[in-house]
Every structure is written in C-alpha cells, then in structure tokens.
Write a structure and sequence with these properties.
The chain has helices at 2-17, 44-56, 64-73, 91-104, 114-118, 127-134, 159-181, 197-205, 239-246; strands at 24-29, 31-32, 41-42, 81-87, 108-112, 139-143, 187-189, 209-211, 230-231, 249-250, 270-273, 284-287, 291-293, 295-298, 303-306, 316-326, 329-338. The chain is of the alpha/beta class. The structure holds zinc ion.
Length: 345
Amino acid sequence: MMRWLHRLLPYGLSLLVMPAHADLVILQYHHIATDTPASTSTTPALFKEQLNLIAKLKIPVVPLEEATRKALKGEDNDKPYVAITFDDAFESIYTTALPLLKQRGYPFTVFVNTDAVDHHHRHYMTWTQLQALDSTQGVTIGGHTSDHAHLVPRPGETAAHWKKRVVRSMDSGMSRLREKLGSTTTLFAYPYGEYDKALEAMIKQRGWLAYGQQSGPVGPGSDPQAIPRFPAANSYGQIGPLRNKLLSLAFPIEASLLPDPVIQRNPPSLQLPLPDHWKADHLHCYGSLRGALPVTFNASTNTVEITPSSAFSGRRFRYNCTYPAGDNRFFWLSQPWINPEEKED
Ligand SMILES: [Zn+2]
C-alpha cells in the first residue's frame, strides 16, 4: 500500500501543476546568414543548433496551416508542436535553410512580399527560385503584401485613403503569387508584425489566417487574425531561452479580449482577466528593453493591470507575460504595441 501510494503521489501532485495540454509554437525567421542585418538574421550555426534542440526535445515539426487550424480548435494538443516560418523571401532561405530543413524532412512556410522579388532586390530570391521552392514537398508560400507596407493607419490619414492603400497592398501581393506560382494561399503575415483591429476585420473578411511577430504559442484562445510567432533571430533565438519557448503554453484567455495594438496613450495599460486558480503574484510581465513591469491585482473583478511608470520609445514594443505551468514550463502571452507617431522603418 505504502509503495503504491508512494508511486501514485508524485504523479498525482504533478497533475495539479502540469498542464494537461500543449500548444503550437511557430518560429519566425528572416535571413539564415552571417552577412545580413543582425536584427533579422540567424547564423547558420545557430539555426542548426535550434533544429538539433527541436529534434532532441522530440517536438514534431508540422505544416503551418493544418497545425494552426488544429491549435485554434484545441485539437491534438496532448503534446507540443512546432512550425517554421520565414518572412520576406530572402535568398538564404533557398541556399542555406532549404537544404538543412529538407535533410530533416521539416516542412516550412515562406511569406513573400512580391515587389522585392519583381524588382530583384538585394538578398531576395528570384521567381525561378521561388517556383522551385513552391514545388518542393513540405514547402508552403504565404502572402506578405506586395510592397511590405506598414499597414496601420498613418497619422492624419483618412479612413478612405487608409483602406484603399492597405487593400491594394494586401490583395496585389496575393494576386501576384497567384500569377507567378498559381497560389491560392490563405496564409498571410503582417509586415513588421503591425496590425490593428480594423485591419484584422478586413483579413477575416478575406478568410485568411494572419500571423504577427508577438511571441507566444497558439492555442484555442488565440486570435486567427493575430497569430503569435516567436522571433528566432540571433538575439531572440539563443538556445537556453529557446527551450522555454518551444515548450511554452498559450495563456488560457480569449485573445479577442486583448486591446488594439495601436496605442492611444504612452505607456499603454494592459488589463487581463486572471484565469481560474491563477495567483496574481505568480504572473510576471516584462516590457521591451525595460525589464519587469508592475502587475496590480483587482480582486473585485479578478483582473490584473499592467501599467508601466513611464512612456516607451520606439515604434513597436511589447509586454510579455509568463506564468509557471509546472515542470519548468511557462504559459506565455505577448501584447504588441505600435506607436504610429514614431517614424516607419
Ligand atoms: Zn517582412
């Protein structure tokens, strides 16, 4: 009896703190190279280490669209999955990433901004390379606009002008993919990860899934038009922190409750409903280049509020929150913010 209890107890206890499910983690890359801008590059050496870690953790690498749809429905979520994505159709995807991913049989998705390919921009693939990539088993091409524009309204831009501008940018990119690749993709990635609620509504009308650049796994509460991805360039993709990201869990809250990323004041406040049985003092939130942010608990509404003490500089910043899930794993949520008064890059 004692022996039986002894065996049962640690298991029983771990059930209390262990998540009963897991979620889809999407990695986001640009260049796999050493001679391209540091902020958007992953060295081939680090990329190989990352792929080795995924293999070591025995996490299946799955096709993006099917995995996203399953994660949003909460299907097949008894173990973690990872999907690999690249933005911007850079040449090193073809020359360096493709052979490494093919070797391992890992599927991946490339989001293509078509003007840069049409105009033969430096470091970009040609249409011939993209056609070869597109016909490679396991490779999917998605849309990333024609002109890689900032899609949130500009200061002083009329609603009519904004709508015309973003519709042209999004739809002409998709029609160019149709012309050159025969693509009928419904996958879309926001340039710079910038979106707002009005843009999301237009994407939803088109029946597209849309991916951002705010970190966090995809779960049943995620927003199909604001799907999180973990940036995996050199500065974010280091092996130690990557383990926690690969094994992270989506916050059990409805993403539709999250605020519009375009800020109304600086610093913006983030209010979150506290999930059942969660303790506010175990929730930790961090601001971009800022470190820990103050978390205030309101017992009467069972919500937490994150209000930093001073304004953030820069066009884009994030509040990242984590909550321990047991077994050295974390629930992970990132709220992106955009200050459109700051210059576009
Ligand atoms: Zn891009």
